[in-house]
Design a protein that fits this description.
The protein has 299 residues and is an alpha+beta fold. The chain has two domains: 9-125, Thrombin, subunit H (Beta Barrel), CATH 2.40.10; 191-298, Tumour Suppressor Smad4, CATH 2.60.200.20. Helices cover 15% and strands 35% of the residues. The chain has helices spanning 25-28, 119-125, 137-146, 148-172, and strands spanning 9-14, 32-43, 49-53, 65-68, 73-80, 82-90, 96-104, 110-114, 191-197, 206-208, 214-217, 225-226, 239-244, 249-254, 261-263, 274-277, 282-285, 291-298. β4 (65-68) and β5 (73-80) form a beta hairpin. α3 packs across α4. The chain is flat, with a radius of gyration of 27 Å.
Length: 299
């Protein structure tokens, strides 16, 4: 999000339900697009990066992606700017009753979380994503929308420059696409410790263990690998896993869980003791559905 500018145009996708009683059910499942711009980039009291946007956001937009003009996801819709106002409504006996209600503070003031704030969580969960470098594409798209003639001239200049460079290299005998460099090294590449999910919610995911210990469990405050709440066989902080680079062994420790941590053959590990696992060892947490395998892979 470091390339995002104030006043940049954005597109908000979601399923707003403000007119639920006016349209059929099929229409409700159609993605709606709202257009607006970024008014400011701020931080919440908890230090979370936010965009203030003026696009229309309503219930049903929350959690939806926000795209810029180049088609890149730069954030996720969070909420409108709301305030509490006093209300009076009749109670069961018809007497007036005071209350408070959250209403929009103003129109076209909404908040979205920076996409950068979400990437650590995606890494922890082992969910795949790609962070690409926009290069010249994004500035060119912005220029084309605002100054199409200037964008066309710049594109022609780039093509002419590239063509001239290609012609010059051909004349002086420099092979296209080749450059002088070092010969490939015969030194073996280092191995990276990994945890592979074999079953349960993390089946098919691969997590890097080179950056320290990995806590596994259902409590997001205590763990980096967080299981869904319905995985009741897994404890709040079920086990710890780390890699010992000195011995090329993995160390697995059960944190006193109720349902235990087991090796593939069914051996239950004693709690609060680090157990060495050679690469290729499989284990599970509480139930065989939540199986994993440790291993080393070329980086």
């Amino acid at each position: 999000s470091q390339n995002v500018r104030d006043d940049e145009a954005v597109f908000v996708l979601g399923f707003p339900g403000a007119a639920d009683d006016l349209v059929d059910s099929d229409s409700l499942l159609t993605v709606k697009v709202s257009r607006g711009g970024i008014s400011a980039q701020v931080r919440s009291e908890q230090g979370v990066g936010l965009y203030q946007i003026d696009a229309a956001i309503n219930p049903g937009h929350s959690g939806g992606p926000i795209f810029n003009e180049a088609g890149r996801i730069i954030g996720v819709s969070v909420m409108k700017s709301l305030t509490l106002v006093p209300t009076i409504s009749p109670d069961a006996q018809g007497k007036p009753e005071w209350g408070l209600e959250r209403v929009p503070l103003a129109e076209n003031i909404a908040w979205a979380i920076h996409i950068d704030e979400l990437l650590p969580g995606l890494r922890t969960l082992g969910l795949p994503f790609t962070v690409d470098n926009p290069g010249l594409l994004e500035p060119m798209v912005r220029l084309a929308r605002r100054e199409p003639v200037a964008a066309l001239v710049l594109t022609l200049l780039l093509f002419l420059t590239a063509g001239g460079l290609w012609t010059w290299r051909q004349r002086v005998g420099i092979p296209i696409g080749k450059s002088k460099g070092k010969a490939p090294s015969n030194t073996p590449r280092p191995f990276g410790p990994q945890l592979r999910g074999l079953g349960g919610p993390f089946a098919g995911n691969v997590l890097d263990l080179s950056e320290g210990a990995l806590a596994m469990g259902r409590d997001p405050r205590l763990c980096q690998l967080v299981f869904p709440a319905e995985c009741v066989e897994v404890g709040r902080q079920h086990a710890l896993l780390r890699f010992d680079a000195q011995t090329d062994q993995f160390l697995l420790e059960d944190c006193g869980s109720r349902n235990g941590t087991f090796l593939e053959a069914g051996e239950r590990l004693p709690p609060n003791q680090a157990h060495q696992l050679p690469p290729g060892t499989r284990f599970y947490l509480g139930d065989r559905r939540y199986r994993f395998e440790v291993g080393l892979a070329n980086r």
